[in-house]
Design brief:
It is a single chain. This protein has 528 residues and is mostly helical. Helix content is 71%, strand content 0%. Helix 16 runs parallel beside helix 21. The longest helix is centred in the last third of the chain and has 33 residues. The protein is globular. It is found in: Membrane. It comes from Gossypium arboreum. It is a multi-pass membrane protein. Belongs to the major facilitator superfamily. Sugar transporter (TC 2.A.1.1) family. InterPro entries: MFS_dom (IPR020846), MFS_STP/MST-like_plant (IPR044778), MFS_sugar_transport-like (IPR005828), MFS_trans_sf (IPR036259), STP/PLT_plant (IPR045262), Sugar/inositol_transpt (IPR003663), Sugar_transporter_CS (IPR005829).
Length: 528
């Protein structure tokens, strides 16, 4: 099913004429570097925080504990709030920046918002690479977080709006794919820079984030703004010209009129957040929020943030820990590609439920191995068990990457109706970043206190989210957005009780509830 901005599908489900033009492909590739930047920031932090020279300069207490595990034991040697703040500050800044980015995306356009994100990224990279003290390091991460907030708002929306309908679903996951490629790139860089003698390898790791930052900035300068954005801001002639250019045909009048009408209806929504709380919109809101919380409670970001630290804790040694992180990063990329091809074939529910079983089994096996083989003061994990742990973590990562990773964003994007779409997606992004921050800030402390039980903790959440999926998440595969209420919500055993026919949305134009088919896709901009 396509996932986009204002859907290029008529109420009858007829596709508008559109060619896959070079300008669309180039624009999407350039814009998707925002995901590359986000992924690199996620992956690089875990690598540098396992580098002795980095710890010695910024976190001497942690450095002493890693040199002498007897002080606190294996599980607690990285337990430090400052070290966790280095990682998590990015997501707290991203959460705050989301509110400003929602305004710029709507008022200034997607292209300019991506440009602002690029400038934030470049400034953050410079500060991080040149950091002389902890305050400078954290401030650099905060600027990177602001870039994440702006990029995560504008890039997926830009991708979904500029792509033709028939490839919109795949391009919507392109952002997620670039995030995983960024994580893999960071792991490879960390593996190389950890071997540099002289104490400056970590600076190179942080500084190379400038490559995707520059790509995003240059890309934002070169691409055209989406026709949806131009029409939304009243620049109709320019929007029509851009639409003709990106579609590669002169037969764009039906789609243009559809976009104008969708924009008009969206502007008439006076109280989107009030509408979001109405009874008839509760199923979409509950599912969107639950998906974001569950996505983080799988434990995936804890593993991707701190993979080298985690493997080092398990006794792999620094070199082997970084190498193992590269393996998990590669599995993450390949499995996300699987989701692009399978999501519209096997359906959302099948992927989520299968992944739940796979993640639960792998986490329980990891917990059992650690319980018996990795004690507080054990020196090394037997090679056979070490390989099994890596295999199980890869099994876990692959399950997440073709299910809860992309679907955590895709399902909310295709279920919110037009009158609550912007507000709903803003809530989705904010909840995701909030819980990402919480997990990033708490994980190393949880590892210290729970020890091997950390994996049992996350596996317990996997059981809860799988039960939630089984009973409360409906299948939305191949169902047009305009038919979602009739074919999904009104047919669902539980959610149908919230679909009151006599309740109308709180908007100035009473027919908006019938036109929810105009909205489809990841659109985190809000009517704030």
């Amino acid at each position: 099913m396509p996932a986009g901005g204002f859907s290029s599908v008529t109420p009858a489900g007829v596709e508008f004429e559109a060619k896959i033009t070079p300008i669309v492909i180039i624009s999407c590739i350039m814009a998707a570097t925002g995901g590359l930047m986000f992924g690199y920031d996620v992956g690089v932090s875990g690598g540098v925080t396992s580098m002795p020279d980095f710890l010695k300069k910024f976190f001497p207490v942690v450095y002493r504990k890693t040199r002498n595990p007897g002080i606190d034991g294996n599980y607690c040697k990285y337990d430090n709030q400052g070290l966790q703040l280095f990682t998590s500050s990015l997501y707290l800044a991203g959460l705050t920046a989301t509110f400003f980015a929602s305004y710029t995306t709507r008022r200034l356009g997607r292209r300019l918002t991506m440009l602002i994100a690029g400038f934030f990224f470049i400034a953050g990279v410079v500060l991080n690479a040149a950091a002389q003290d902890l305050a400078m390091l954290i401030f650099g991460r905060i600027l990177l977080g602001c870039g994440v907030g702006f990029a995560n708002q504008a890039v997926p929306l830009f991708l979904s709006e500029i792509a033709p309908t028939r490839i919109r679903g795949g391009l919507n996951i392109l952002f997620q794919l670039n995030v995983t490629i960024g994580i893999l790139f960071a792991s490879l860089v960390n593996y190389g820079t950890a071997k540099i003698t002289g104490g400056w390898g970590w600076r190179l790791s942080l500084g190379l984030a400038g490559i995707p930052a520059l790509l995003l900035t240059v890309g934002a300068l070169l691409v055209v703004d989406s026709p949806n954005s131009l029409i939304e801001r009243g620049r109709l002639d320019e929007g029509k010209a851009v639409l003709r250019k990106i579609r590669g045909t002169d037969k764009i009048e039906p789609e243009f009129l559809e976009l104008v009408e969708a924009s008009r209806i969206a502007k008439e929504v006076k109280h989107p957040f009030r509408n979001l709380l109405k009874r008839r919109n509760r199923p979409q809101l509950v599912i969107a929020v639950a998906l974001q919380i569950f996505q983080q409670c799988t434990g995936i970001n804890a593993i991707m943030f701190y993979a080298p630290v985690l493997f080092d804790t398990l006794g792999f040694g620094n070199d082997a820990a970084l190498y193992s992180a590269v393996i998990t990063g590669a599995v993450n990329v390949l499995s996300t590609v699987v989701s692009i091809y399978s999501v519209d074939k096997v359906g959302r529910r099948v992927l989520l439920l299968e992944a739940g079983v796979q993640m639960f089994i792998s986490q329980v096996i990891i917990a059992i191995i650690l319980a018996f083989k990795v004690k507080d003061h054990s020196e090394d994990l037997h090679k056979g068990f070490a390989i099994l742990v890596v295999v199980m973590i890869c099994t876990f990562v692959s399950a997440f990457a073709w299910s809860w990773g992309p679907l955590g964003w895709l399902i909310p994007s295709e279920t919110f109706p037009l009158e609550t779409r912007s507000a709903g997606q803003s809530v989705t992004v904010c909840v995701n970043l909030l819980f990402t921050f919480v997990i990033a800030q708490a994980f190393l402390s949880m590892l210290c206190h729970f020890k091997y039980g950390i994996f049992l903790f996350f596996s317990g959440w996997v059981v809860i989210m799988s039960i939630f999926t089984l009973f409360l998440i409906p299948e939305t595969k191949n169902i047009p957005i305009e038919e979602m209420t009739e074919r999904v919500w009104k047919q669902h055993w539980f959610w149908k009780r919230f679909m009151d026919d006599d309740e109308v949305a709180d908007v100035t134009n009473g027919d908006i509830a019938k036109k929810n088919g105009h909205a489809n896709g990841f659109d985190p901009t809000s009517q704030l």
